[in-house]
Amino acid sequence: MLNQNTSPLNSSVSPWMIIGISVVLVGVVVIQAVTNYNREEKYMGQILAEKGSALIRSFEAGSRTGMMGRMGNEAHLQTLLEETAAQGDISYIFIVDHTGEILAHNQKQKIGTQFKDLLSKNNTLPPDQPQWRIVKGSGQKDYFEVYKTFLPVLNRQGMGQGKKMMGQMGNSMWCSPGWIKGLSQDRLLDPENRPTIFIGMDVGPFEDARKEDLRNSGITITVILFLGLGGVVSLFWAQNHARSHSLLQDTRAFASELVTSLPMGILAVNGTSNIVYVNEVAARLINRAINQAKGKKATDLLPPSLVELFDVVKNGNPVLEKELILETKTNKAAPVAVTITEIIGEQRNFIGHVFILKDLSDIRALELEIQQKDKLAAVGTLAAGVAHEVRNPLSSIRGYATYFGSLFDSDSDNKKAARIMAEEVDRVNRVISELLEFARPMKLELKEAAIYKLVDKALRLIKCEADLAKVKIISSIEADIPNVAIDKDRFTQVLLNIFINGIQAMESGGSLTVKVFTLEDRLRFEISDTGDGISAADQANIFNPYFTTKKKGTGLGLAIAFKIIESHGGAISIESSKGKGTTFMISIPLEQNNRELI
């Protein structure tokens, strides 16, 4: 039976589901990457801003310390700038006044140059609190720049307190002219002229970290996309595999069902001549059970005639056909057409051999039946012509015999001769009548008949003859056999003919067995005797007109019986072995619409 199951892959999972899941995962990763990027940018700004602010406060504190001592000069401030800028992540530190002139710079060559910036161009005062921004430097390099108003001193009150702490130091000692060139105490405390300090920090490490995060996110997205693509491809592959597997299973089931249902025997052997497959028909024809045949050597199991044929094929004939006679499981010799051919694989490699066995018994029986019908038709046509030509002279001969007999005395030899002549003419006339009856188309008078009554009547008619021949009659009639439409007289004639032939075949006594039963849509009669049997050569002619194995008889009885059964749409056959008795088998349809009347 073909496999009708559907693979779960074909119904529960769709490729679009895999694609949708992959898209959702990619979206989640992208959103997470953007969120992380923004968060890291914010954290970077906070960290660098705090660091820049701390550096500015430290620088202001250092400046104040220098101002309160005698080290508050330009060289000290330059050193402080350079040392602070020497830290790994500090790119530059410089101080500019409100006009944009660089008052101090970690790179000395830039001192006194003009700083062009929006803060100067727009005359926007720098804030007292640190601010930050991203600026482009040389080579398109980004710098994180923190800037604020530079306040090395807080206010005039603070300066007064400082003087009291240091004693009687003059104002010039707080901020000597050399501390920052052009930057006096008044300018430091003037809110309109306060300088601005800028600290530029390299954002490369932070950018590298962000790029690494972006790269990791990209790798994650790529992996997810590849996983999704792989999932889709795998799903398609799995579905194709499942579909191919299902198709293969269906093909195997179809091939198995086809081979099993074939009316021919199939037997396959591999390259080492071991039997790998045998169906029921082949097992019956080689007279072996299927479980006994599989795995066995073909040369050890097959009949000798098949082994000889197999050897011929193995010696160079790729295909061989021949008709053999094989002994089947029923111990009956059957004509079998055998075909042996090689099995070649797709790579042109030798796989084994396959035996195809076709039972020709039915074909031979059909051929024999056709020959029998043709022969009967020819004999019937000949008999009709001969009977017509012979019957007219016989009438004249009988008339003259009667006339000459009347001329002699009743006790004379001539009278007796004339009477014998008339009797022989009558016997010939009866034979001719039988021949004409056989030759002409048979008209049946079909009526519903109870089969058990019909058989019982025929057995009662031959009971006396059976008793005289010491033949025991055994009858077995199936109960509830339905009535059948038959010609009762002609069917009784058939039964009587076969019964009498069976009794006459048992010269030393025996048993006559009559079985009546239904088989599918047919009524079957089996009439067996325990006589000497009939040879195979005689069985081929047993239903021919004028063929007989008895010393007495015309040989028309079984020929007429054959025609009567055939006219009922039935069949009659014989099984016999010399010395083992004979069985006549008759079958007729139970229903009239299942028969072909002749």
Automatic annotation (TrEMBL):
GO terms for molecular function: ATP binding; phosphorelay sensor kinase activity. InterPro entries: HATPase_C_sf, HATPase_dom, His_kinase_dom, HisK_dim/P_dom, HisK_dim/P_sf, PAS, PAS-like_dom_sf, sCache_3. The chain crosses the membrane at residues 16-34, 219-238. It is a multi-pass membrane protein. It is found in: Cell membrane. It is an enzyme of class 2 (transferase). It catalyses: ATP + protein L-histidine = ADP + protein N-phospho-L-histidine. SUPFAM superfamilies: ATPase domain of HSP90 chaperone/DNA topoisomerase II/histidine kinase, Homodimeric domain of signal transducing histidine kinase, PYP-like sensor domain (PAS domain), Sensory domain-like. It comes from the Bacteria. One of its GO terms (cellular component) is plasma membrane. CDD domains: HisKA, PAS. Residues 385-592 form the Histidine kinase domain. Keywords: ATP-binding, Cell membrane, Kinase, Membrane, Nucleotide-binding, Phosphoprotein, Transferase, Transmembrane, Transmembrane helix, Two-component regulatory system. Its EC number is 2.7.13.3. This is histidine kinase. It comes from Desulfoluna butyratoxydans.
